[in-house]
């Protein structure tokens, strides 16, 4: 029986949770018996075609615009080796370990379907590399997101053949040949079709989409908590989040966000203190009142992206592909458009969610709009600046997020002598989404840090139990209001609490699981 730390890759699709588990938790990987059988069956078909006189793309021809050349049997091993060497042409900084592990698992998943024609030993090598923690060094730049993430996947394949550079389980840089030898893994010698099978996939952009989706789902809960704390500390009302009002506009994500905020604000003494007929505040600002509409739209966008990811996870992306009835057919399934579009869509949603958060923070700092709090929440305004520059930091990040929201998928630069004349740029869309999520985490952390300070300044009024729990989690790391301190380390401390789930856990201990 496999341990919980082992992911079994078979002819079925791997799940998003399995991708995250392998990418981030160093789970081991094993191939199922059914997968090995499926690969052996399709491999027999490729080997039969290799003996025929007629040219078959990827088996007995060159690649891309060079597909018109017929390659004789004696040069076919060199053909595959040359393909990997020439396509491992990336440049720039290393891609993160979790991204490389995700794309390796996803390429392995496609191999395991038996639709690529690769030998079982090719898949076994990838599974063993993942299990022992050998991670090929993959440069950031090189993929156009069409014909697959060619350069990133080629760097992985190069390492599997014993060339290039890897990081071992301890994170040390080593020549691939040395790391494979130390793990008892024989370098691959690629046969017909196998070079293409290892590089013709959307695995890099898909892996980053799966990881980003998991991160954003957690950050949406942080966003609801942050918005609730801001509504509370800015003397807003929770009446606008009532279920019957939300049901008048039945977007599912909006209902979830409103329900979260209502639960987090339950029992707030601060909210109750001004819930009277003589309260002069008639309506809250949009960034407060419409928080569920914005966060809800992000949730619904994320749900669409996750649906696209689930379809892609169930795909066997290669060209040519071995069909279920044994044909070997060229196709265009490697085009990254479906994944690229949702990656760009998520970057737009992330930028807007952060923009609303920054607006709420700014309200805290303006004496004309914060309903009785000191300017900039400063201890001694004029001597102290309080959170004035924390909002500057938010504004700088939000401006960057707006730049990152410019779609990559609307661009296309033809390549391969115009044979590959329309490309998706999905890899680029994925890279900028990762940067955007880091920015969103920081913007939300600053809002939570500011709102927690404002809650303290509302004393002796008591916050809700859930918002107080979040405030207390921050106070375990950071003192309460007082004269100005070095603010950057305090921001970073709350960024960590937002990223690792601590803020959500604090709220959920009181309010129960949030949606």
Automatic annotation (TrEMBL):
Cell location: Cytoplasm
Gene3D superfamilies per UniProt: Fumarase/aspartase (Central domain), Fumarase/aspartase (N-terminal domain)
EC nos: 4.3.1.3
One Pfam family this sequence matches: Lyase_aromatic
Listed pathway(s): Amino-acid degradation; L-histidine degradation into L-glutamate; N-formimidoyl-L-glutamate from L-histidine: step 1/3
Domain of life: Bacteria
Main localization (coarse): cytoplasm
Keyword Lyase attached: yes
Enzyme type, top EC level: lyase
Keyword annotations: Histidine metabolism, Lyase
Chemical reaction(s) catalysed: L-histidine = trans-urocanate + NH4(+)
The keyword Lyase is assigned to this record: yes
InterPro entries (alphabetical): Aromatic_Lyase, Fumarase/histidase_N, HutH, L-Aspartase-like, Phe/His_NH3-lyase_AS
CDD domains: PAL-HAL
Leader sequence segment: none
Membership in a protein family: Belongs to the PAL/histidase family.
NCBIfam families: hutH (TIGR01225), PRK09367.1 (NF006871)
Protein known as: Histidine ammonia-lyase
Organism, scientific name: Rhodococcus olei
């Amino acid at each position: 029986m496999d341990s919980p730390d082992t992911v079994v890759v078979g002819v079925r699709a791997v799940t998003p949770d399995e991708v995250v588990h392998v990418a981030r938790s160093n789970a081991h990987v094993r191939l199922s018996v059914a997968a090995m059988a499926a690969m052996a069956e399709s491999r027999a078909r490729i080997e039969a075609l290799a003996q025929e006189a007629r040219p078959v793309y990827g088996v007995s021809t060159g690649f891309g615009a060079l597909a018109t050349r017929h390659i004789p049997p004696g040069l076919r091993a060199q053909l595959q080796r040359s393909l990997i060497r020439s396509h491992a042409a990336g440049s720039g900084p290393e891609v993160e370990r979790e991204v490389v592990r995700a794309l390796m698992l996803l390429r392995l998943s496609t191999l395991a379907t038996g639709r690529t024609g690769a030998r079982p030993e090719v898949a076994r090598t990838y599974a063993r590399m993942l299990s022992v923690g050998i991670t090929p060094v993959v440069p950031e730049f090189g993929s156009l997101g069409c014909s697959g993430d060619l350069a990133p996947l080629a760097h992985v394949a190069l390492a599997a053949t014993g060339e290039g550079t890897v990081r071992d389980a301890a994170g040390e840089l080593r020549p691939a040949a040395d790391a494979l030898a130390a793990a008892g893994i024989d370098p691959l010698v690629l046969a017909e079709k196998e070079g293409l099978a290892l590089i013709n996939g959307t695995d890099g952009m898909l892996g980053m989409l799966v990881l980003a989706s998991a991160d954003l789902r957690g950050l949406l809960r942080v966003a609801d908590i942050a918005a609730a704390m801001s509504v509370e500390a800015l003397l807003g009302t929770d009446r606008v989040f009532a279920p019957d009002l939300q049901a008048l506009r039945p977007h599912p994500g909006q209902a979830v966000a409103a329900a979260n905020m209502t639960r987090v604000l339950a029992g707030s003494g601060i909210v109750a203190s001004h819930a009277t007929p003589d309260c002069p505040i008639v309506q809250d600002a949009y960034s407060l009142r419409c928080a569920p509409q914005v966060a809800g739209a992000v949730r619904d966008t994320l749900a669409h992206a996750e649906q696209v990811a689930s379809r892609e996870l169930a795909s066997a992306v290669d060209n040519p592909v071995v069909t279920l009835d044994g044909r070997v057919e060229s196709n265009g399934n490697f085009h990254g458009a479906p994944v690229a579009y949702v990656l760009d869509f998520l970057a737009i949603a992330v930028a807007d969610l952060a923009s609303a958060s920054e607006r709420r923070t700014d309200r805290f700092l303006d004496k004309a709009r914060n309903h009785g709090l000191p300017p900039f929440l400063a201890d001694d305004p004029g001597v102290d600046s309080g959170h004035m520059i924390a909002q500057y930091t938010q504004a700088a990040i939000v401006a960057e997020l707006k730049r990152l929201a410019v779609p990559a998928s609307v661009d296309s630069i033809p390549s391969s002598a115009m044979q590959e004349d329309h490309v998706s740029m999905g890899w680029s869309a994925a890279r900028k989404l990762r940067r955007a999520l880091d920015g969103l985490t920081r913007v939300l952390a600053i809002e939570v840090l500011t709102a927690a300070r404002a809650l303290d300044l509302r004393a002796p009024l008591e916050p809700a139990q859930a918002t107080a729990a979040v405030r207390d989690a921050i106070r375990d790391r950071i003192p309460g209001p007082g004269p100005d301190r070095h603010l950057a380390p305090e921001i970073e401390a709350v960024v960590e609490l937002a990223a690792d789930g601590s803020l959500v856990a604090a709220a959920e201990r009181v309010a129960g699981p949030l949606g």
